[in-house]
Amino acid sequence: MKYFKVLGVSLGLLMHCMATDAQSKDDNRMLISGQGWYGYDLEQARPHQKSSTYMTYELALGIQTDPADSCIYDQLFGYPTIYIGGSVARMGDFQFYDKTKFPNLYSLFGSFERTLLRGNHISLGYHLDFGATYNPASYEPLNGEGNNWLSSPFMAYFGAGGFAKVHLGNRWEVGADVSFRHFSNGRLRLPNEALNAVGGGLFARYSLSDYEPSRYKKPVQEVTDFAKGMQYTVAIGGGVHTCQAEWNTYAFDHSQADRPARVPTKEESAALKAHPKYSFALEATYRYALRYATGLGVEMFYSSNMDHLKAADTILYGEKAVMDSPGYDPVSIGVAVVQEVYWRNLAVHVALGAYPYRHKGVNDKELNEKYGDRERGWHYEKAGFRYYFPDLGNTFLGFSIKSHSIKAEYLEFSLGWTLPAKSR
Predict the structure, then answer these.
(1) pLDDT at 4 over 60
(2) Among residues 395, 301, 298, which one has the least CA distance to residue 347?
(3) Under a CB-based contact definition with an 8 Å cutoff, are residues 151 and 190 in contact?
(4) What are the E-state strand segments in 103-257?
(5) Which string of DSSP letters, residue by residue, matches 330-373?
(6) Mean pLDDT of 343-365
(7) Mean pLDDT on 311-317
(8) Do β-strands 407-419 and 122-134 pair in parallel, antiparallel, or remain unpaired?
(9) What is the DSSP string of 63-130?
(10) Which one, of 105, 107, 61, 65, lies nearest residue 84 by Cα?
(11) Whole-prediction pTM value?
(12) For the purposes of burial, counting CB atoms within 10 Å of the CB of 31, is it exposed (0-12), middle (13-18) or buried (19 or more)?
């Protein structure tokens, strides 16, 4: 209810701005956007789930980058629009055959919207959304009520999709988008089955300045402050991780032959420790365009939970399997293909890697997949952001999600430094 009061006050203020601005034409590039989005939960295999669709309501404020005051990055990306907004995902509308009740999820997000085809009346493009989500429910397995799958109060949110919009007059536009949306706590706590959905929405927007498509069709200026070349990066990172194998000791305890699989209790889930994880990375990338750099990285990962993992494996697989395993070394080495995409001082950072050295106990693919413990595989992924500070020697702060076969291992915060091919 409080959320809708905030939305109501915000809409009232925005309607006032529209009324006072309706007759003026200036260079105020602010927009207000409202959207309703209808999603389908791809994780519909949850026990006792009867319905898999839900509504999301969003309100966002945007700034349209403009040729009059834009930088070369804005020109190369077709003058993107940057939004900051809030949403409520009505997961509480899910229906179950038992007493299970999902909570509504509340998110704050930023959105990067790029127009690929800009016309006088119709425009097409894509958007990327990133944010943080609040989950008001807790893990309540005994009575089937509450949030049995997303157990952490705070989660990461990601969305991506394409849109088409129609310009109505000088200041209004309406449109539709089709997108994918993901919620996950990044293994801060277990359980973390995540929420993945696909769907579509309708939106309406009002701009505080007139839409003039001719302003955005000027030729891109020549890039002068840029030179191709190698650049080198060093970074340290860290986060916390709740071990899936420890969770599985409750869910799949085979120490007694007749003991069935079960759902861990609330107390057992709360007792699981979040273990620190650390990383050190060296990267060499080739900056072949102002927006892009590609190269290789070598990373060392340190996991502090090897004793707990060994104890869990003993319960799950038996002492013989543990003795026959490669061992439990807290250090792992990864080699990855690295891609960065730059917009101003912000970079999207993606790494696809493999482990030439990794000893994390029993590595039986069939058993690990059966127990939902895919992180013992030979490859990994990292995706996130880096924000560069050129005035501080091109240091950066980073955030990423490390995962295995798209199953999160942990959320990583990083600090690093890049020696660029040429100052940006």
Answers:
(1) no
(2) 395
(3) yes
(4) 105-118, 122-134, 154-168, 172-184, 195-207, 229-242
(5) SEEEEEEEEEEEEETTEEEEEEEEEEEE--BS---HHHHHHTT-
(6) 91
(7) 88
(8) unpaired
(9) EE--TTT--HHHHHTTS-EEEEEEEEE-GGG--BSSS--PPPEEEEEEEEEEEEEE-SSEEEEEEEEE
(10) 61
(11) 0.86
(12) buried
Domains of the chain: 2-216 (2.40.160.20), 229-419 (2.40.160.20)
Burial of 414 (0-12, 13-18, 19+ CB in 10 A): buried
| Alpha carbons 326 and 365: distance in angstroms, whole number | 14
3-state secondary structure of 269: helix
- Which 3 state secondary structure label does DSSP give 307? helix
Give the closest residue to 131 by CA, choosing from 110, 154, 100.
110
Q: Tell me the β-bridge partners of 31.
A: 62, 207
Residue 291: exposure state from Cβ atoms within 10 A (0-12, 13-18, ≥19): middle
Which of 206, 220, 111, 224 is closest to 157 using CA atoms? 111
**Is the backbone peptide bond immediately before 191 cis, with ω within 30 degrees of 0?**
yes
CA dihedral 292, 293, 299, 303 (to 10 degrees): -10
Burial 321-358 (b: 16+ CB within 10 A, else e): ebeebeebebebebebebbbebbeeebbbebebebeeb
Comparison of pLDDT for 136 and 193, the residue scoring more: 136
Q: pLDDT tens digits, residue range 367-394?
A: 666 666 777 888 999 999 999 999 998 9
- The CA distance from 202 to 82, in Å, is 18
**Distant-in-sequence contacts of 102-105, Cβ < 8 A, 24+ apart:** 102/137, 102/147, 103/135, 103/136, 103/137, 103/146, 103/147, 104/136, 105/133, 105/134, 105/135, 105/155, 105/183, 105/195
Exposed, middle or buried: residue 138 (CB in 10 Å: 0-12, 13-18, 19+)? middle
Quote the tokens at residue 95.
């229906």
Kindly state the tokens that stand for 394.
Answer: 């091109």
Strand partners, 351: 338, 382
Would you say residue 248 has pLDDT above 90?
no
Helices and strands, number each (H, E), in the chain: 7, 16
Mean of pLDDT values over 43-62: 85
| Tokens matching residue 58 | 């969003």
